[in-house]
Amino acid sequence: MRVRQLTAAAAALLLAAGGPAGCSGAPAPARTPVPAPVPAVPTAVTGDVGPTDRDAVRDGGTLRWAVDAAPATLNAYQPAATADTALLAHALYPSLFRPDEHGRPVADPDYLESAECTPPGQRPQVVTYRLNPHAAWSDGTPLSAADFTAQRAALSGLDPAYTGTRPAGYDAIDSITPGAGPQEVRVTFRQPYAEWRSLFGPLYPAAVTGSPAAFNRPLTGGPEPTAGPFLLSGYDAAGGRVSLVRSPSWWGERPKADRIDFLATPAERRLDALDQDRLDIAPLTAAIDRAAAAPAAPGTAAASGAPAAAPPAGAPEAALQALRRAEALPGVTVHRASAASLTQLTLNAARAPLTDPVVRQALARAVDRRRIADAALTPLGLAAAPLGSHLLAGDQDGYRDNSSALGPADPGRLLDAAGWKRPAGGGTRTRDGRSLVLTLLIPADSATARRTADALTADLAGAGIALRAVAVSAGAFVRAHLATGDYDLALFSWPAGPHPAVEQRAVYAKPRPGADGALEAGSNYGRSGTEEIDRLFDRAAAELDPAGRLALLQEADTRIWQLGHSVPLYQRPDLVAVRSDVAAAGAWGFTWPRFQDVGLLSS
């Protein structure tokens, strides 16, 4: 499940986290023909995972896995759910489909033998699921239509007593009934829903979703059944430890590890914990990106009170030192991949001068995305792969670079036409006595954000636009700035998933008037949108033909480029340290761990 909400913690997704939801009256840009496709090239790393040969992995052993915290719930549909919730849910609960390395949803045979949908154009749309006959909850109850029915009731939004999130698609279901046999489930939709594979993952037992009282309470290790390769054996929120053990009732391939301990380990302590052999698997993106410079030694200028020569906390130099330390740790391999997360430069169309679509288009044209990607990714050992799509990652099936939709016009000429004139000797443009100076909101103490901001500053200066970077803490990034519109430009990432027609719609939906008449941006922090873009998303969500759905998404992306909503930059880097004797672990890219394979290599 990809949550389509940018939380305060996710605001620093530029490099911080691991993995599992305007007010402008400016006219939309003139419609131009959809450009011819730019051939996609495989520039992003789809994943970097250690050896996966199960025969080379010994039976038994305990793995120590770093997480940010013991999550407040294991219910991925509750507001308190985090990326660590999603990680644990993949080990404990069914997901009927899982994304492959290119973001394509594929049936997980441990839970699903097949799923058949009625052909495009046939009404009503009916999906018939045939569950693995061995799939059962840990109390022995087989997975059945009752679990599907209860989850649909909890997530459809029809009963406000359920206080969870509202994933798209459950409200499109008309009915759920048992099929021809005990393992068959028939789901009938009241309207065509193309992204039906996004539903029921994770799937919870009816005991968890069957009533508001059961659904709303924290799910942290009560008696409710699970149905994964592992069972929950300990949940110590205060001590920061969640322990899983092999499930004796698991019907699939036997898990290699006896036990997995998920240990709450702050990012700044992970390198030390690896060095002291207290962790086997540790996401390091935040640890490296927010690394603090070492304190000055006694007797140096900084220690004596003179101006410090050492870089400030989170500076690029400190991050590179942390990366070099990680790479030098004995018995540890640093895995690198492009995360399923799209870093973009968002333009606030509700604040002048960006209310003018011509200014937004000029700014977008002035950004050298390859130079930006090079500045951000090359120091981390990843290819400088710029993004050309707002909706799909470079290694995702169907990716296409649609940046040519901006057209060939020179940004300087556009700004001249908008009345922003450059002084004869160069420098920052002005209009009516005002200089073209914009604020750039970046996550505080992020080395990657700082490198990106520096490259953006140089790019836009060439067009006569001055930037003033404003570093903001993760807690204030959304609440005090994105949500209120208190910024000009902002640098952050959105998750990318296998179902962009529904997962990305809210990010680009045209803001609507609220009860008080004011426009409500929702998740569209750029605050620009059009009825046409909304219709394209809606048509894509209802298009059952995959080629037709992709064509609609490409057209929507083209219109977003022309609108000047935001500039895609690159996929967020993902760095994961894994002890060298651990198999099937690393940086997973679009997919997630297959927990029954993760274990210790035979000596």
Describe the structure.
This protein is α+β, with helices and mostly antiparallel strands and 603 residues long. Helices cover 24% and strands 21% of the residues. Strands 12-21-13-18-16-17 form a six-stranded mixed beta sheet, with helices on both faces. The chain is globular. The two termini are 37 Å apart.
Index terms:
alpha+beta; 16 helices; 603 residues; disordered N terminus; four-stranded mixed β-sheet; six-stranded mixed β-sheet; single chain
Q: Kindly report how far apart the N and C termini lie.
A: 37 Å
Radius of gyration based on Cα positions: 25 Å
Low-confidence stretches: 1-44, 295-314
In percent, how much strand structure appears in the residues?
15-25%
**Overall mean pLDDT score?**
89
Largest sheet: 6 strands, mixed
- Shape category: globular
Number of helices: 16
Q: Trace the largest sheet across and list its strands.
A: 12-21-13-18-16-17
Helix content: 10-25%
Number of strands: 24
Decide which structural class fits the backbone.
alpha+beta
